[in-house]
């Protein structure tokens, strides 16, 4: 995913935290088989490594073809099947890969639902696994290798939010402002912010900024290499039925128009378009299968440097 260099104040997402309808993720064993030929994240190889940056996202869904129709119509994404697994397809924008879709049947009688799985960059997956375990995390899918892509594992944090770590063979994508249709931001919604801050700081070495204002729920910006990487928000007090989770946003030119299209395509609007702190609008949506994602407007004239 692409990372802009915003003012911390411009990335406060309190209005989202206060109203988001949360859902459980179904991502255990959500990984393509070992025979799948996954391309490298960057071609040519970037040689860059940005620990703690969101560098990829996979949709875990029971209907691959339906997901292609929905996201292709909504964002103009195209798709490319990969050798070795008919249930996995790359997501592309202007022929550049930005994620994948993995078809996985949901076990009957379980409350889990389709979800986007967030991948964060690391240099050493085995070391990340060990640190996660030392600080209360859980290994859901043990580390495994894809020859061109790199080594990855699926973990959960102490609050139960599921994510993946990836050490990319050719390096991570460079930092630049996302274009419409690309991922632009990621938020983590949790029940115990202090515990979660300690976990992710230990795992990725983040610098932490308290971005909450008077009367706001707890809200933090996690930064690395001088770039804001992730927002961490406290779930509302009435969150007994809301599960900690990652939420990824796609940049759009018109959040309200995207919300209308989602409904036309069979999805739902979970948080109506609203003005964010940086002046654009954001919305939280669900595709027809129930997988949650966000859309966010961003002006090229917005402040991109952190305060000195």
Structural summary, described in words:
With 308 residues, the chain is of the alpha+beta class. It has 2 domains: 8-24 and 177-296, 2,3-Dihydroxybiphenyl 1,2-Dioxygenase, domain 1 (Roll); 54-168, 2,3-Dihydroxybiphenyl 1,2-Dioxygenase, domain 1. The protein has helices at 14-19, 64-75, 125-134, 193-204, 255-264, and strands spanning 54-61, 78-81, 88-93, 96-103, 115-121, 138-146, 150-156, 162-168, 183-190, 207-210, 219-224, 227-234, 245-251, 268-275, 281-286, 292-296. An 8-stranded mixed sheet has the order 2-3-4-1-5-8-7-6, with helices on one face. It has an 8-stranded mixed sheet with strand order 10-11-12-9-13-16-15-14. The radius of gyration is 18 Å and the shape is globular. Residues 3-25 and 303-308 have low confidence and may be disordered.
Compile the SSE list and pairings:
Blueprint (H helix, E strand, L loop, with lengths): L13 H6 L34 E8 L2 H12 L2 E4 L6 E6 L2 E8 L11 E7 L3 H10 L3 E9 L3 E7 L5 E7 L14 E8 L2 H12 L2 E4 L8 E6 L2 E8 L10 E7 L3 H10 L3 E8 L5 E6 L5 E5 L12
Parallel strand pairs: 1-4, 5-8, 9-12, 13-16
Antiparallel strand pairs: 1-5, 2-3, 3-4, 6-7, 7-8, 9-13, 10-11, 11-12, 14-15, 15-16
């Amino acid at each position: 995913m692409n990372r802009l260099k915003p003012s911390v104040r411009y990335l406060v997402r309190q209005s989202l935290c206060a109203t988001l309808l949360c859902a459980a993720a179904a991502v255990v064993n959500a990984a393509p088989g070992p025979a799948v030929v996954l391309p490298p994240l960057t071609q040519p190889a970037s040689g860059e490594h940005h620990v703690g940056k969101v560098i990829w996202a996979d949709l875990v869904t029971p209907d691959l073809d339906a997901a292609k129709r929905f996201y292709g119509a909504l964002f103009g994404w195209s798709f490319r099947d990969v050798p070795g697994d008919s249930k996995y397809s790359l997501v592309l924008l202007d022929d550049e890969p930005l994620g994948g879709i993995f078809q996985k049947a949901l076990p009957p009688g379980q409350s889990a639902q389709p979800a986007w799985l967030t991948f964060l960059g690391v240099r050493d997956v085995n070391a990340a696994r060990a640190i996660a375990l030392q600080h209360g995390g859980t290994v859901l899918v043990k580390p495994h290798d894809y020859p061109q892509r790199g080594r990855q594992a699926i973990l959960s944090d102490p609050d139960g939010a599921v994510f993946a770590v990836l050490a990319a063979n050719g390096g991570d994508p460079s930092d630049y402002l996302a274009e419409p249709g690309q991922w632009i931001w990621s938020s983590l919604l949790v029940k115990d912010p202090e515990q979660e801050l300690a976990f992710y700081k230990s795992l990725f070495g983040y610098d932490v900024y308290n971005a909450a204002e008077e009367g706001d729920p707890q809200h933090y910006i996690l930064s690395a290499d001088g770039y804001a990487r992730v927002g961490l928000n406290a779930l509302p007090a009435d969150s007994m039925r809301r599960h900690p989770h990652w939420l990824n946003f796609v940049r759009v030119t018109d959040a309200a128009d995207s919300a209308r299209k989602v409904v036309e395509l069979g999805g739902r609007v979970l948080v109506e378009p609203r003005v964010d702190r940086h002046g654009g609008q954001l919305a939280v949506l669900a595709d027809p299968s129930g997988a949650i994602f966000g859309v966010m407007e961003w002006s090229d004239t917005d402040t991109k440097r952190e305060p000195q």
